[in-house]
Design a protein that fits this description.
mainly alpha; 70 residues; 3 helices
Length: 70
């Protein structure tokens, strides 16, 4: 049986989102970690369709990021 790689990681969620995740975890009698892992597995293919930051920067010269105040 393969050993599971368990690494501790801190994630930060907006307060309302965290509350919703906690409520769903309680409803399903599951851990927060389990809920987030399942959500990632479900959403992964859709998230992979989003352009990377580098792609956005190349395509959007009016992007506000990295701009100094004028």
């Amino acid at each position: 049986m393969a050993s599971s790689d368990k690494r501790k990681q801190s994630l930060y969620f907006p307060e309302q989102m965290l509350k919703e995740i906690q409520e769903e975890a309680a409803r399903q009698d599951r851990s927060l970690s389990w809920i987030v892992q399942k959500a990632w597995k479900i959403a992964r293919k859709d998230i992979m369709k989003y352009p990377s930051v580098n792609e956005l920067a190349d395509d959007a010269p009016d992007d506000e990021r990295g701009r100094t105040e004028e």
